[in-house]
Amino acid sequence: MRPYETDPARIYAQSFATVRAEARLDRFPEDLRPMVIRLIHACGMVEIADRLAFSAGAMATGRAALAAGAPVLCDCEMVAAGIIRRHLPDTEVLVTLNDAAVPEMAHDLGTTRSAAAVDLWREKIKGAVVAVGNAPTALFHLLERLDAGWPKPALILGFPVGFVGAAESKAELAGDPRGCDFVALRGRKGGSAMASAAVNALANGISEEKA
Amino acid sequence: MRPYETDPARIYAQSFATVRAEARLDRFPEDLRPMVIRLIHACGMVEIADRLAFSAGAMATGRAALAAGAPVLCDCEMVAAGIIRRHLPDTEVLVTLNDAAVPEMAHDLGTTRSAAAVDLWREKIKGAVVAVGNAPTALFHLLERLDAGWPKPALILGFPVGFVGAAESKAELAGDPRGCDFVALRGRKGGSAMASAAVNALANGISEEKA
């Protein structure tokens, strides 16, 4: 059995040092870099730094929203499960995907359950932080609702993953963020761990790095 | 707004068709290919097919374990959250990471909480399916316990992610799986979505593909 590092503080420090050494971070606003580092840390891929799209105010807007008590709206349970709740003890983290009404809504709308579940965000969307870590159709559907006049969320964290619609939905967001702040990973890559990491970065930056 | 696919069956079919077109699957045993496809689908990266390590009996052993009522032991809540429970309605899915005893155990052992939490698997480990989707130290610690004489799990799904210990812990598993069946993604990449996908593949293959 080979030796391995067991000290949490040294693991974090070494991880973040590797990210800083390998990833190009200088194109990001200073306040967004902790999120970029956390995103890379969550997936083990420094190269995602080169494909992140973002608005300049994303971090400040997201932090202000959470500080003001805004909810976090997630497209799936995995995103919610990855949010470190001790950093957001009073924040509502909402997942509507498994609401009993969703299958029928999806059928009636002719879309996926993930997209239909977005309609249940209507009363919470204004000023919210949206974290999409799985379903391209959830992000597309949200953008359609915004085009139809919904109130705007503060920040959209766009990390749907996969081969059908993921790259396209994030390109649609990055090309026209509908007046919202946003961070999104272009292309097929993404996932719930990245979406959670983005929320965690809003909540706490990289405080573990200093542990 | 660009048009996008909203039909779940077509999304699945198109996704799996893309995976089959782009990924090299022929080196895998026939019964393992549905898992490989699901793993790729979970992360949007066909290239992971080239870095998967596995034992020839992994799929049959894992399916038999679940069919016999074995529990699934996960290193974090996100892995558990990604397991499709309707395919495993009677299976115990256990996460010990947030057990109240773990912080003190970690302190006493001089290791991470993720590693210490593995010690709470002791009574469940024999014949179990282990799904590691986050912490390299959890996988290392399990291998140490097996070296020390613990009963063996049936199958180890090794998908810890990151820059410190992830590649090393999976190399240790693949180099000497301690008599267990295993599937692991070599290198830094991994994550809870892949670990969940591997469990879901055991439970249901790729039935959605035929939906």
TrEMBL record, chains A, B:
The alphabetized list of GO BP terms reads: cobalamin biosynthetic process
The answer to whether the entry has keyword Isomerase is yes
Alphabetic keyword roster: Cobalamin biosynthesis, Isomerase
Coiled coil segments of this chain: none
User: Which pathway does it operate in?
Assistant: Cofactor biosynthesis; adenosylcobalamin biosynthesis
In Gene Ontology terms, what is one molecular function of this protein?
precorrin-8X methylmutase activity
Q: Where is the Cobalamin biosynthesis precorrin-8X methylmutase CobH/CbiC domain?
A: 11-203
Q: Which family does it belong to?
A: Belongs to the CobH/CbiC family.
Record protein name field: Cobalt-precorrin-8x methylmutase
Q: Which organism is it from?
A: Limimaricola cinnabarinus LL-001
